[in-house]
Amino acid sequence: MLNNLSVVIRRIDQRVVSKESALQTVQHRTRHIQAEITAGDQQRDLLLRHLSSLVIAGSTSLEAILENKARQGSLQRKVAEMELLLADKHYQLEQQSQQQASLKAERNKLQRKSEKMTAHLRQRQQHQVQCRQRQHESETEEQLNWQR
């Protein structure tokens, strides 16, 4: 019985280690996504500043106006693409956060189960030791009684 408990505890502990490893992987991916979001925000801000800085600078020729509008359109497309990318990254970050919370809950549940079973195993082992001591004391007392 005690060996079975030890095996179960060992398996639970292995699952805890597995959950911890998965949690570290998720945390690493979360940090990576956060870095991508930060970089994307900076890039979007640069594009928006550049877009707002485009002015005709006194030029009224149709060619200059059209060229400026084309640059503005190109920058606006890049900003829109960046916004979509950032929205996707925020969604990924939310998914990672949910997965991280789930893994933490599973790991904590398994750890509590392992601790509970380990405490139970120790109680059983102590009980066995006490029973053996009593048996040994009884046998010793019997032997002493036989010798008298």
From TrEMBL:
**InterPro entries to which the protein is assigned, alphabetical:** Salm_SPAgM (IPR002954)
Composition-biased stretches, type Basic and acidic residues, lie in: 104-118
One Pfam family per UniProt: SPAM
> Which residues does the annotated region (Disordered) include?
97-148
Q: Could you identify this protein by its name?
A: Uncharacterized protein
